[in-house]
Amino acid sequence: MPNSILAPIDFPALTALPQWKRFTLAAQTCEVRDTALDIVQAPGLEVDFSGQRHSPELLAAGRALIAARGLDTERARLLAGEVVNITEGRAAWHTALRAPDAPPEVQAERARMDAWVRRADTERRWRNIVHIGIGGSDWGVRLAVGAFGYAGMWRQVRFVANIDGHAIEGGLAGLDPRETLVVLVSKSFTTAETLQNAARAREWLAATGVARPDDHFVAVTARADLALAWGVPAGQVFRLWDWVGGRFSLWSAVSLTTALAVGSDILAGMQAGAAAMDNHFVQAPPDVNAPIRMALAGIVNRSVLGQGSLNIAPYDSRLANLVPYVQQLEMESLGKSVDLAGHPVSVPTGPAVWGMPGTDAQHTFFQWLHQGSDGAPVDFILCQEADHHWPDHHRRLIANCLAQREALMRGKSLDEALVECEVAGEPPDRAAWLARHRVHPGGRPNHLIVLPRLSPYSLGALLALYEHKVFVQALVWGINPFDQWGVEYGKVLAQDIVQALEPGRGASVDVAHDLSTHHWIDVFRG
Questions:
Q1: Which of 188, 217, 186 shows the shortest CA–CA distance to 201?
Q2: What pTM, to 2 d.p., does this model score?
Q3: What is the rounded (10 degree) CA torsion for 417, 422, 425, 427?
Q4: Which residues form the catalytic set?
Q5: Percentage helix, strand, coil, to 5, in the chain?
Q6: Whose CA, among 196, 273, 309, 513, lies 20 to 30 Å from 300?
Q7: How far is CA 231 from the centre of its chain?
Q8: Same domain for 469 and 380
Q9: Model confidence over 213-241: pLDDT tens digits?
Q10: The domain containing residue 175 runs over which residues?
């Protein structure tokens, strides 16, 4: 794949397009309505759009807008592995990792990893797995292991991401080093947090009497040469590719820990669900294309209505790690303010993404969602069937999800609140006062995403749904969703500050820090 940064391109500003003006007008002149169902069927799930602004005019305007941005062409380029990450001159070909007809090198690496896992399972080796990675090398694996290993696994899995020494200390505490495998995941094999924690793990193995500590390491990286130089055995280095972005990488050998923890069939099922969503994204007409519809609804909420955040509310405790996974996917991809031509973006882009599982969320921040001055769109995620043996629990979970969603959509008028107070026996003056505190604005946008049950297939489809949604939003906004220069800048500054914090050294002359940073370097250096 090409790896040279492309020349600047001529790209029209979104607000200069007549299709954008038509889309904006259509969004402003329709409402969240409960007069008609608007449900889209997709592989592994359904998405109910009834809680979003919708009208025939808005659908037509959305179709015209994505056509003006060249969706058909750009989608084909993405899925063909062409250079779509133009600032870094790379493809973003994560869909190839889950395709049934994946490139030969992908299939070969997949088979090699599966064979390694089968051998470890047959030999009942590695009762403890310490997964060391951060960001995209961490969240997807945490999500899958949490979703399908929640009821227990024969292997114990611990995750270490943070550079904070407490993270690696806790990750290793109490483990038998003879039965411990450390999985290092770093695309570049230069990630500071990962290598620092890996060094502590190797020291721990050596200090506890393990004769060959390096045999207890596996690496997943695009830089096999660096992993080998570090000491990982050649047969235990698994390949990533330059065209795989970290936040899109769980479909690869990054999920080695997933396979060891909950089985290779889980990973294969997730890949199959994602591949099915890829086909849906390509083949379904825009009006019944779940990723396209979610993208356009999100653009309405962010760029037309000015909603600054998106709440993710999975009503399934096994999906607790879905929130940070989607948070990274969306905020690292869409947190951009410069378009493909290098000009300032003319509308608000990527919202802040946050949340937690329901029903915990109802007792934490749903008051703000219902009656706060701003509120936020909500993605409710629910499984129709549970995998436990307490049906009453699941009925109550479903009831809570549907009720919270209905309250956001319907709201409660002053007249309704007043009647409620009067029925409760409140005196007229108090009822008139109290009713104002019970008003819910309503009309607050949301999606309801329903999975038949939490299977590997449905989870894979769900994650691919969000991936393609992000791609379409970036295309409309005219931004590159595949780079992360903001993250890189902080890394550069941190390298200089680490050196400056060494005892007996001053701040580097290479970087002119601000006055406050200089002050705290002096304080912490001591």
A1: 217
A2: 0.96
A3: 100
A4: 332, 363, 491
A5: 55, 15, 35
A6: 273
A7: 32
A8: yes
A9: 999 999 999 999 999 999 999 999 999 99
A10: 103-262
